[in-house]
Structures are given as C-alpha cells and as structure tokens.
Write a structure and sequence with these properties.
The chain has eleven helices and two strands. Strands 1-2 form a two-stranded antiparallel ribbon. Helix content is 58%, strand content 7%. Keywords: Repeat.
Length: 226
C-alpha cells in the first residue's frame, strides 16, 4: 500500500485484474489513513472507477469499509509480529471522530453520484454492482448470496456480523430513500433491464434493502412487478 501511495499509481493499478484482487484482500487490513487516501483517489474520478471491470470491485470494498469505519467507537484490528518473542500480537486502533466523518462523507459522495447517474449505471455491466453495494451500505445490510448476480463479494469483511445491522449516517440513509423513489420514476423501468437482471437487482437487492428500513424511514414506495 505504501509503495502505491509513493508512486501515485493507486487508480491505474486498481484497474489491473491481479492488483485489484490484491487490493480487495489487503484493504481491510491496511492502515485507516491509507484507506482514506484511497477514497480520495477514487473520488477524483468516480465515473471511471464505477465502469471499470476491476476498479469497480475495489470501490465496492472501499464502500463496505467506509460504513464499518464510520461507526461510533469503530476500531481496526491490526496484527504485529514480535520477532524477539516470535509471536503475533493483536492491536485495536481506534478510528478518530475526524476519520469517521471522512468515511461518512465518502459514502455520501459516492451515493449521490450513483443517484445522479442511476439510469445509466443500473444497466451497466460493472457499475450496476456498485449501485448494489451503495444500496447495501445505505441500509446497513449485506444482501443474501442467493440474490447476488456475482459470487465475487467481499465476504471477509461483510457488513452483517451475527445478524447485526450497522448504523447508517442519516445523510447516507437518505440516499437510499432518494434512489428508491427515483427507481419508481424511471421511464420504461422494465425495458431498462434484461428480465433476469431486473429480477435479481430490483426484486432482490433493492426490495431487500428497503424492506429492512422502511418502518424507520416511513417509506411508502411501490415497486413494479418484474
């Protein structure tokens, strides 16, 4: 991670198939400041990151981590090796309030960008996965594997642990409401998607997310039948 920062190659290397998979694995264990640095780099050109076949996966990972680190009292588990005693020690590093706010701001920024490009992104092969992840983090849940359109997911750092739902910042939660309402107003909604994609995306991801928080948001959104 430090080598990537020094060379300023985070964005270009994230578009590499092999490097993107490595980033998926190392980001959950990277220093919080390094994750924030990646957020800044990706935020400079969100469209390119959303539509890229490999960088889009890294963006999904960053979104998942952002919600995790935006939690009140969030900590990061780090492991350090003690060569003298030949043992590994687990450290808990607290995420500062300023860092938590930066993660929340990143979630809000990406969510708003997805909202503004919703009609294009929902029918894009790669950006649609980013839309799905935005819906997940905006509702604080991770959608069941059975309704995913791709098996490549960040299972090692899923949002839900033992049935718990993470707390979503109010501004980010509002993005979910806005997206839900906008979906119902898209012209020719059914015609935007192939039937199998519509079934997985609308009936699966969106309805699942909305149903988990509709009482809290006092939603009354009608979804079209697929």
């Amino acid at each position: 991670m430090r080598e990537l920062e020094q060379d300023g190659q985070q964005r270009s290397l994230a578009s590499n198939q092999i490097i993107s998979r490595i980033l998926d694995d190392v980001l959950p264990h990277a220093d919080v400041a390094q994750v924030l640095a990646m957020n800044i780099v990706f935020g400079e050109d969100l469209r390119a990151m959303c539509v890229d076949p490999y960088a889009s996966h890294v963006l999904q990972t960053l979104l998942t981590l952002a919600l995790k680190y935006a939690q009140k009292g969030a900590v990061q588990k780090r492991h350090e090796e003690n060569e003298e005693e030949n043992e590994e020690k687990e450290l808990l590093i607290h995420v500062s309030d300023d860092q938590r706010q930066e993660f929340s701001t990143f979630l809000d920024k990406v969510g708003r960008f997805v909202y503004n490009n919703l009609e294009d992104f929902v029918k894009h092969k790669y950006a649609s996965h980013v839309v799905r992840t935005v819906l997940e983090v905006c509702s604080g849940i991770e959608v069941e594997q059975s309704i995913r359109s791709s098996q490549r997911s960040q299972t090692s750092h899923a949002l839900c642990k033992e049935g718990k739902i993470l707390v979503v910042p109010p501004t980010v939660k509002q993005v979910l409401l806005n997206i839900a309402v906008r979906f119902t107003r898209l012209p020719d909604l059914i015609g935007l998607f192939p039937p199998c994609f519509l079934d997985k995306f609308i009936s699966g991801t969106l309805v699942s997310c909305i149903s988990r928080i509709k009482d809290e948001l006092h939603l009354n959104v009608q979804f079209p039948n697929s």
